[in-house]
Amino acid sequence: MSEEKLVSVETQTEYSITTGQHETRIFFKVYVEAAKSGLIADMGAERWQTLCILASFMDERGECYPTQDHIASRLGVSRQTANQRIKRLVEYRWQGRELVRAIRKRDEHTKRWENTRYTVLPISQITIFNTEPEAM
Prior knowledge:
alpha+beta; 4 helices; 24% strand; globular
C-alpha cells in the first residue's frame, strides 16, 4: 500500500488591495491515492462527507469541538441526522482502525455536558498546518 498523502488541508493568506485586509482561507487537498487505496469507496459518500466537514473544524492535533448544530448546518441536514452520521463515522474502522475518536465529558464545576471533542486521527490521511498523515 502506498504511503502517499491522501488528503491535506492548507491555508493561504491573501491581501485585498481594495479593502486593505488580509484574509486567510483554508483548503482541502484530496489526492488521487484516496480513491486508489479504497478508503473513499470503503467509507462511502456519507461518511466521507461527514469526515471532511468535521475536519474543517480541526486544529493541528486533529482536535475540534463543533456543536451538532454547526455540523448539521454545514452538512445541510437536521441536527438529529448529523448526530446519526457522526455516530456512524466514529464507529467506522479503516483496516481495523478508527479514523475519528469522540470524547464527551462533563464540566467539573457546572456538571453540564461540554461540546464533544472529536479527534481526526492521522490514519484518516487528513492533515492540517503541515502535520503528516500516518502511513497506511
